[in-house]
Specification:
The chain is mainly β. The chain is built from no helices and six strands.
Length: 77
């Protein structure tokens, strides 16, 4: 799915569920929400890039986990 809009930039502070970017399909557009809160360090995509599920979209300096933070599995070594 192609990226048609990027809604955050490096240095932005984001909240859980804040929209990060907009993708377009043949029938609809969809916004991709943030799974964690923190500061955007860098973007890995640009407008026009085609993404698949699981592709990285940004580097995030996440806030420390709190009671409302969803569980995110640690990468396996």
């Amino acid at each position: 799915m192609p990226v048609i809009e990027i809604l955050v930039a490096a240095g932005d502070r984001i909240e859980i569920d804040q929209s990060l970017l907009t993708l377009e399909t043949d029938k609809a557009t969809m916004e991709i929400p943030a799974p964690l809160a923190g500061e955007v360090q860098s973007l890995a995509v640009k407008v026009g890039d085609k993404l698949s599920q699981g592709d990285p979209i940004l580097t995030l300096l996440a806030e420390s986990a709190g009671p409302d933070t969803p569980d995110v599995p640690e990468p396996s070594a």
